[in-house]
Amino acid sequence: MKAYPAIPSVDAAPAELVEEGHLWLLEKVDGTHLRFQLQQSGLVRFGDRNRVYDDPDDVPDPYQHAVRHVRENLDREALRNAVEDVEDVVFFGEATSYRRIDYEWSRLPSFLGFDVWSANAETFRPPDAVQAIFDGIGLEPVNVFERERRARDFDPGSYAIPQSAWYDGPAAGVVIRDKRGRRAKLRHSHVETAGEPAPIDVSAEELAARIATQDRLETLTSRLEDEGQPVTFEPLYERVLEDAFRKAHGRLDHDGTPFEMSEFRSEIGALTQAFVDGRSNGT
Fold this sequence. Notes:
- By secondary structure, this protein is of the alpha+beta class.
- Helices cover about 30% and strands about 20% of the residues.
- It has eight helices and ten strands.
- The mean pLDDT is about 90.
């Protein structure tokens, strides 16, 4: 599966990017890199920046919410109708997990697409096509700040990074693209100076109690019911864990976190089981 090239800072990008043609300015979301490819079998194959996973269950925990989102929302029929060979196409996007920005998670999709590769053509699709492709297959593309801005009218040194579409604050940065495949990124200073997330500083039991609250369990239960899913232990437990890893990614994975993930999973499991038992007993 095609790996995504590193995007240089605007200072290291080819000078022609901001000297000729027209630019698309896209919101840079502070998430984690996720790529996928539909197989002829109908299964979806996923990868992060460095690895490819033949089994979606092997994808690391912080990505599982995005894996579920893609698998449930991808319009496979629309994709098959659009291309001769579905395995020709690789899709790239952000799994929107917490790193430095606390987005409004209830509004922010678990996956936002930003690029599409065609193996047969050996090229990335232009930004206008990328937007249409993701819309056409049932997935949301990244937010576009500006379309077709004249490159000569764009001054990276004086450009003010706009507000994010996904929380009340500035975007993590801007990705600058043209139709020739050239790219650069311009980060907001608050992301550059924010540093890495702090480790969890409470016990696994206390953290689980903060996450698997009655309100959150009821919210996730309602989502399962809306989807026609049974509200039994396993599916609810998976949703609670996905939610936890999405909103605490970076902190849970921190070397300074004072407990093992198995301990945290066990505490979440106990709270989830108590909730399911309470529903069964009518309490």
